[in-house]
UniProtKB/TrEMBL annotation:
Pfam families: ADH_N, ADH_zinc_N_2. Residues 10-320 form the Enoyl reductase (ER) domain. It comes from Pirellulimonas nuda. PROSITE patterns: QOR_ZETA_CRYSTAL. This is Quinone oxidoreductase 1. GO terms for molecular function: quinone reductase (NADPH) activity; zinc ion binding. The gene is qorA.
Length: 333
């Protein structure tokens, strides 16, 4: 089978399409034939080791000190069940599914095994493979951080980086939870963020949200430009700063902030839970959550796909197609 591998950290050119052994499912495993996967900010950071302040050494200890321990990136996919182990009862051959490997990565493959009780669920009938492949990364991150923040109806939320993979998911999910949402993005992406339900959009190129005098119950920073020092004056009493992409200094301040103020910093890795995937499937089926797709690439265009994500211009999600689909022409925004 085909796999996209890399043997050293670096630019997109380190990625290669190679041949490897097709896996066989264990007794309780499901073998999925991949139709689509994604290139997320997580894939970019692990490949390049471009990490927030204080995390580069930690990342090397996690993923490999001098070279990657695991040579296959990719944290999410959608496809069709190819075969099942003898003890599998929840899935059958031909089922359309989407799955999430999260920090374990390994989804840049033509076939992948998942435990039937793992992070794999049926696709909603009204969702295609491309959208299903992009349900998990942004969606689970937004769900988990809003859960940790105890976001509830009527609260005011600001999402910094509202046009990215996590941001576009967060706007939709926050609106579904009944929040009033302000999105921060470029003017080029303002109409997109508004179409997702944002009540207000701030163009970071012409306005600084921290200087406008507005206060919020929750600020979510998906891009790493809203540390506590900048965001704290914009938080209401009992306000929460959600650091999707935060530096180590702010994460180390979490206990002190909690002990000395009514405000709170929420950081760390998002939980990877099966019930969150099921929730996302339900939201997608009901029309509450629709992953934004920016560009589509074939497997053989994987270097180009990563290069585009590296550029920082990605809106929503970048899809990599495995099975018989053709990428759309790439046009400017």
């Amino acid at each position: 089978m085909k796999a996209i591998t890399y043997s050293q950290y670096g630019p997109p050119d380190v990625l290669r399409v190679t041949e490897t052994t097709k896996p066989s499912p264990g007794p309780n495993e499901v073998l999925v034939r991949t139709h689509a996967t994604t290139v997320t900010s997580g894939d970019w950071r692990v490949r390049s080791l471009d990490m927030p302040p204080g995390f580069k050494l930690i990342a090397r200890l996690m993923f490999g000190l001098t070279k990657p321990h695991k040579d296959i990136l990719g944290g999410e996919l959608a496809g069709v069940v190819e075969s099942v182990g003898p003890d599998v009862g929840r899935f059958k051959v031909g089922d359309r599914v989407f799955a999430f490997s999260g920090s374990a990565l390994g989804c840049y493959v033509q076939f992948k095994c998942f435990p039937e009780d793992g992070l794999i669920v049926p696709m909603p009938d009204n969702v295609g493979f491309e959208e299903a492949a992009a349900l998990s990364f942004g969606g689970t991150t937004a769900l988990d951080f809003f859960r940790k923040a105890n976001l509830h109806e009527g609260e005011a939320v600001l999402i910094n980086g509202a046009s990215g993979g996590v941001g576009t998911a967060a706007v939709q999910i926050a609106k579904h939870l009944g929040a009033t949402v302000t999105g921060v993005c470029s003017s080029d992406n303002a109409s997109l963020v508004e179409s997702l339900g944002a009540d207000r959009v701030i163009d970071y190129q012409s306005e600084d949200f921290a200087a406008l005098g507005q206060k919020y119950d929750v600020i979510m920073d998906t891009v790493g430009t809203a540390p506590y020092s900048r965001s704290a004056p914009c938080l209401n009493e009992n306000g929460r700063l959600l650091l999707i992409l935060g530096g180590l200094p702010d994460l180390l301040r979490m206990p002190w902030v909690a002990a000395t103020s009514t405000k709170r910093i929420v950081g760390g890795a998002a939980a990877e839970r099966r019930d969150d995937l099921e929730t996302l499937a339900q939201l997608a089926e009901a029309g509450w959550y629709k992953p934004v797709i920016d560009r589509r690439y074939t497997v053989d265009q994987i270097v180009e796909a990563h290069r585009y994500v590296d550029s920082g211009r990605k809106r929503g999600n970048v899809i990599v197609l495995w099975e018989g689909s053709q990428p759309l022409p790439h046009t400017g925004h």
